[in-house]
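Why do we care about 3D structure at all? Because function follows from shape, and shape follows, mostly, from sequence. That is the central idea of this module. The next example makes it concrete: a single protein chain, its amino acid sequence, and then its structure expressed as tokens.
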Amino acid sequence: MVNDDIRERLVAAERRFEESPVTIEHGLNVSDPELVQLRRACRLLAAGLQLLDRGYYTVVIESSFVAIERTIQFRLIHDGAMAPEEMISNHRRLYQRGAEIGLYDEPFSEKLADLWTQNRTKTYYRLGIATKEQAAAMQQLAIDFHQHYVSTSQCKHECLC
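And the structure:
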């Protein structure tokens, strides 16, 4: 049973999303879909660095995977391999699309998908406990992945990192 306060909070949240933007997050006010993906990845990496220091390892692992996925989407759109309005909600399929356009090879795509399936899922759903070492390794992978695929693009100057 949901109490009235929670119902009111839900309505208030719905209204906020229906209103015109007032206070916009700095750096994300771009209209180009590839830059939206790029800069979301930048923000996820920055947030992950702060959260790692505070001991939020599960969230760091999650944000690292999402940063990798936003970086792949950035490159797919940037390279003309994905329409901006296209949505790929399946993680494995997104990693495969990166391999299909030559961002990396198929074995790398499979390892990335397996890492997501076997480890992200475990920590996210508490089937395993996230550790600082796991979070730090995922964060470094996400940072290196992002830096590499942004540095080999034609709009590396748009990165917020």
